Amino acid sequence: MISRKSVNECIVAGHTIPPNTLLFVNIWSIGRNPKYWENPLEFRPKRFLEPIKTGDDDPITRNFIDVKGQHFEFLPFGSGRRGCPGMVLAMQELLAVVAVMMQCFDFETTKSVDMAERPGLTSPRATDLICRLKLRMDHPLKMLHNPQD
């Protein structure tokens, strides 16, 4: 949850919010709201590549959503001046690590994937995802350290 304090009186969805009211934005609930996400409980990463209905003639895809907090249906790093200070580093590192892992390994699950959740700070899975990594090449680390060879 993200907490914020209202500065002025405002109206949100027909409700009057007095000044100096402590508000909590329930990101977990927004991320599972069928108003914003078709079949929100279904694990479907490709949904971020699908067109968004913007009302314009030129729909955009979710992979162009600004994760800095301007599209409030998706707030992985929070929003505003109290958003995650490590967002840029996290996005760069994620891209680099995933790219190297995809280049060097094949991933296999040891059993079916269960997306049920259990209570926790970061929405952990009820059943851990266990993957087996298989090398795609004989010496992936050599390739990473000596790309000219």
Automatic annotation (TrEMBL):
Keywords: Heme, Iron, Metal-binding, Monooxygenase, Oxidoreductase. The lineage of its organism: Eukaryota, Viridiplantae, Streptophyta, Embryophyta, Tracheophyta. The keyword S-adenosyl-L-methionine does not apply. This is Cytochrome P450. One of its GO terms (molecular function) is monooxygenase activity. PANTHER family: STEROID 21-HYDROXYLASE-RELATED. Heme binds at residue 84. InterPro entries: Cyt_P450, Cyt_P450_CS, Cyt_P450_E_grp-IV, Cyt_P450_sf. Transmembrane segments: none annotated. Belongs to the cytochrome P450 family. It comes from Cinchona calisaya. Its cofactor is heme. It comes from the Eukaryota.
